[in-house]
Design brief:
With 280 residues, this protein is α/β, with parallel strands linked by helices. It is built from nine helices and eleven strands. A seven-stranded mixed beta sheet has the order 6-5-4-7-8-11-10, with helices on both faces. Helix 3 packs across helix 4. The longest helix has 17 residues, at 96-112. The radius of gyration is 18 Å and the shape is globular.
Length: 280
């Protein structure tokens, strides 16, 4: 089966993969993207060594985030603004984002001490801007990266932050300077090679800077069956705690913390903090 080739740069070359979930139709709740195929057929393979899940199918998702994702998921830029306002209005106990913001701010305070100037954050794949908006309100200077120019424009107009519509691999450090934190909130599962994406941000971290990652948790979700949103088609990867740590190590990052949680929305999530690994 041709199509996307998700990889974590594993030395075992996939020798320990077992077919786990098989789909011949979209599960309930999955966004109906305008995909260039007449037949819906896909599967997930699970590694018996590290517990990582790899998506396998022949459906072309290459252009999904350039336009189709925004249209299918939000109904265009107007829908993005409506979703932003809706989520920001949620009570903290109902908001995944509120917990994320509180955890990151607490971690930064423990790592850096009291701030004497606004901390700088680079958010990769900022989406509707819920997280950047909350971090901006908390006093951080936020820069976002999004592949869709319309999403970047939305972030500039609706959230009031700097936003670049370029691949992170092309964002030279001279354009933004160094930052205190780089965040990937539910992003790395959408790319075929998350190791390369993580490695690309290392030069952008200032002294003591850290990377914060959220990814879907396969170990939590799998027990509830193939209909879980963690296993929707746009996810090339679904992670275990072990595979999250291995991915970071291959990108030259050392692990500071890995935590498993069930979010208010019901999502099974792994969140992790990383720093640039010390040279051997």
């Amino acid at each position: 089966m041709s199509g996307p080739r998700p990889t974590l740069r594993c030395s075992c070359s996939g020798r320990h993969l077992t077919e786990a979930f098989v789909y011949d139709a979209p599960p309930e709740g999955e966004v109906r993207f305008d995909l260039p195929t007449a037949q819906y057929s896909r599967a997930y393979d699970c590694c018996s060594l590290c517990g990582h899940w790899f998506g396998r199918h022949a459906i072309d998702l290459a252009a999904l985030y350039e336009r189709g994702y925004v249209d299918a998921t939000y109904g265009g830029p107007a829908g993005m603004r409506a979703r932003l306002e809706q989520v920001l209005a949620l009570p903290p106990e109902q908001s995944d984002n509120a917990g994320r913001v509180a955890r990151l701010i607490a971690f930064a305070r423990a790592r850096f001490g009291p701030a004497t100037a606004p901390r700088r954050l680079l958010d990769i794949g900022a989406g509707t801007g819920v997280f950047p908006a909350a971090m901006k309100a908390a006093g951080w200077t936020v820069i976002a990266v999004e592949p869709d120019p319309r999403t970047a424009a939305h972030l500039r107009d609706a959230v009031g932050i700097t936003a670049h519509a370029v691949p992170i691999e092309e964002l030279a450090s001279t354009q933004i300077g160094q930052v205190d934190a780089i965040t990937f909130n539910k992003v790395l599962e959408h790319v075929e090679d998350p190791v390369t994406m993580l490695a690309a941000v290392r030069p952008l971290l200032g002294a003591g800077g850290f990377v914060y990652v959220e990814v879907p948790d396969a170990e939590g979700a799998a027990a509830y069956g193939p209909g879980r949103e963690e296993f929707f088609i746009e996810h090339h990867h679904v992670f275990s705690a072990a595979s999250t740590v291995m991915m970071a190590a291959r990108a030259g990052l050392g692990t500071l913390a890995v935590e498993r949680l069930r979010e208010p929305s019901g999502k099974f999530t792994l969140r992790a903090f990383f720093e640039v690994a010390a040279s051997p």
